[in-house]
Specification:
Blueprint (H helix, E strand, L loop, with lengths): L35 H27 L2 H23 L1 E5 L2 E5 L4 E5 L3 E12 L6 E11 L6 E6 L9 H18 L3
Antiparallel strand pairs: 1-2, 2-3, 4-5, 5-6
Length: 183
C-alpha cells in the first residue's frame, strides 16, 4: 500500500495517464515532507505527554480524581500542540494556498496570488527572533503587492541544513502557483 506522505520528494514518471490514488487535486496537501527538527520536537512533546499520562494514571489510583483530570487535561494539551506542530507549513490545492502556523491558518485563493518567488533575505532561525541570511519563498498578493509574506525559509524547522529539500519544496509551490493562478 503506497503512503502518499512518503512520496512528496520524488518525481513521478508514470507511463500511463492514470491518476495515482492520492492524486486528488482538490485535497489540501503539503508538497514537501516535514523536516527533522519539526518531527523531533513533536516526538519529544509526545514523549513528554506519555509521561504526563502515566502520572495522571498514578494520581488517579492514589489521589483524587479531580487532580488526575487536571493532569490528564494537560497531557491532552501537549498532544494537541504536538499534532498542530506537525501540521504547520504550506499546503496547496486547486482552491488556493494555505499557510498553517502554530496559532492560525490563512488560506489565499489562487485568484488573489500575484506571484510566488524565492528571494534572498534575512530569515528567522528556527522561528526564533535571531535572523540570518537565507532564502525565503514569498507570496505577493494582489491587494498588497508591496509586501511579500514569507511562506518557507531555508532556516525553518523543515529545511534547516537541507537546502536541496528547500529548493524542491519552493519549486513545487511555485509550480502549483503558476499552474493554478487565474486572472
Amino acid at each position: 500500500m503506497p503512503l502518499p506522505f512518503l512520496t512528496a520528494d520524488r518525481a513521478f514518471e508514470a507511463a500511463d495517464d492514470v491518476a495515482l490514488p492520492f492524486d486528488d487535486r482538490d485535497r489540501w496537501r503539503r508538497p514537501y515532507r516535514p523536516g527533522p527538527w519539526r518531527v523531533g520536537a513533536a516526538a519529544l512533546a509526545l514523549l513528554l505527554a506519555s509521561y504526563v499520562l502515566f502520572a495522571a494514571v498514578i494520581i488517579a489510583l492514589t489521589g483524587s480524581v479531580s487532580e488526575a483530570g487536571t493532569v490528564f487535561g494537560c497531557s491532552l494539551a501537549v498532544i494537541g500542540a504536538a499534532l498542530r506542530l506537525l501540521r504547520v507549513g504550506v499546503w496547496v490545492s486547486d482552491r488556493g494556498l494555505r499557510h498553517v502556523s502554530f496559532l492560525r491558518t490563512r488560506t489565499l485563493p489562487w485568484e488573489r496570488v500575484l506571484a510566488v518567488r524565492t528571494v534572498q533575505q534575512p530569515v528567522r532561525w528556527l522561528g526564533l527572533p535571531r535572523t540570518v541570511q537565507g532564502e525565503a519563498l514569498t507570496v505577493v498578493r494582489r491587494e498588497r503587492p508591496a509586501e511579500a509574506a514569507p511562506l518557507l525559509t531555508t532556516h525553518g524547522a523543515d529545511f534547516l541544513a537541507r537546502p536541496e529539500a528547500f529548493d524542491r519544496a519552493a519549486d513545487a509551490v511555485e509550480a502549483w502557483a503558476s499552474e493554478n493562478r487565474r486572472g
